Amino acid sequence: MVPLKIGVAMSGGVDSTMAASLLCEQGHEVHGFFMLLPLPDLESQLRRVRQVADRLAVPLTLVDLRDRFAAEVIGYFTATYRTGLTPNPCIRCNHAIKFGLLAEAMRSHGMERIATGHYVRLEQQDGRPFVARGGDRAKDQSYFLARLTAGQLQQALFPLGGCTKEQMYARAAGMGLSFDGQESQDVCFLADGLPAFLAEQGIGDQAGPVVTRDGRRLGAHRGVWHYTIGQRRGLGLPDATPWYVVALDGAANRVIVGKHDELFANRCLVHDLRWTHEPPPLPWRGLVQLRSRHVPAAAELTPVDAGTWQLTFAAPQRAITPGQFAVFYQDDRVLGSAVIVPEIAAEHEP
């Protein structure tokens, strides 16, 4: 293997640290890059990443992305919640920040490749790179990298693709490093919880009705952003059988509830469709993952009109959530993704 100059996105956690360690072991010239982001624990993260960089004897460069992260990720996050949709900031961050602005900074420092500690593999088919599921299926993060472009993947490396989390903890322990078995937080800027964060962003309570699909009012809510599709607890609606949030109507500030069978739908609409490479012929058939913990389901993608497509599932899916990403897989490879849009009048099946 020809040694390369590789920039590693380092956070001070076990995954990025072990990614850097593996690349050093392979003989590459490894440089660590740490993103300065508007996070409440930034100073403690900075101390930790400096310690592990010193332990690995790799140079560390700080890249100040606080303003751009606030605009590109936090701005998107709060704007999406304001409309009653559910955002996925990690997907946005990976595309625009980590493999976008951070990668640009790495290249400006002479890096030939960009590496991260994601548990995904990079597959080549006909000379084209694809994100593929990692060997550790319990930690697979391919869903979160679904928006990466072919150009971004051309320079990417994922050293942990064939590894398990347990192996990385064991490797770290063998090097005398301890990470206390702690996982990184899903959304890095929500240390104090979602309600507190949204309040800081100027999104306060806004009372509105809780209604059934046919418009029958059952109660009141404090703001649609306090609720998620599929939520059961906290509704305060006693009945013989539980009520669930089945839709959020941001425009009318309504929380729409129904019984358990109303959580299932056999189709949804999507927009902002992006393929990693050239678009396949439509209708496209394959596996679709609707959120990070969703079991991929067989579906067909067909066009509806300019800018809108429909996903029709072989079996009804539970709690399809507008604002989240539908990620398209062929076997283990990510082919593309789209954003789920509201469709309150969707066809439901028990």
Offer a quick outline of the entry.
25% of the residues lie in helices and 31% in strands. It has 350 residues and is an alpha/beta fold.
Description:
By secondary structure, this protein is of the alpha/beta class. The chain folds into 3 domains: 5-174, Rossmann fold, CATH 3.40.50; 205-258, SH3 type barrels (Roll); 263-341, Elongation Factor Tu (Ef-tu), domain 3, CATH 2.40.30. Helix content is 25%, strand content 31%. The protein has 7 helices and 17 strands. It has helices spanning 14-25, 42-56, 66-82, 89-108, 150-154, 165-174, 194-200; strands at 5-9, 29-36, 60-64, 113-115, 120-125, 128-133, 156-157, 208-212, 217-221, 244-249, 254-258, 264-275, 284-289, 297-305, 308-318, 325-330, 333-341. Strands 12-15-14-13-16-17 form a 6-stranded antiparallel beta barrel. Helix 1 (14-25) packs parallel to helix 2 (42-56), helix 1 crosses helix 6 (165-174) and helix 3 runs antiparallel to helix 4. The radius of gyration is 22 Å and the shape is globular. The protein starts with a strand and ends in a 9-residue tail after the last strand.
List keywords for this structure.
350 residues, alpha/beta, Rossmann fold, SH3 type barrels, Elongation Factor Tu (Ef-tu), domain 3, 3 domains, 6-stranded antiparallel beta barrel, 5-stranded parallel beta sheet, 7 helices
CATH superfamily of the largest domain: HUPs
The figure for the number of domains is 3
CATH architecture descriptor of the largest domain: 3-Layer(aba) Sandwich
The third-level CATH topology of the largest domain is Rossmann fold
Widest beta sheet: strand line-up: 12-15-14-13-16-17
Q: Mind describing the biggest β-sheet?
A: 6 strands, antiparallel, barrel
Outline = globular
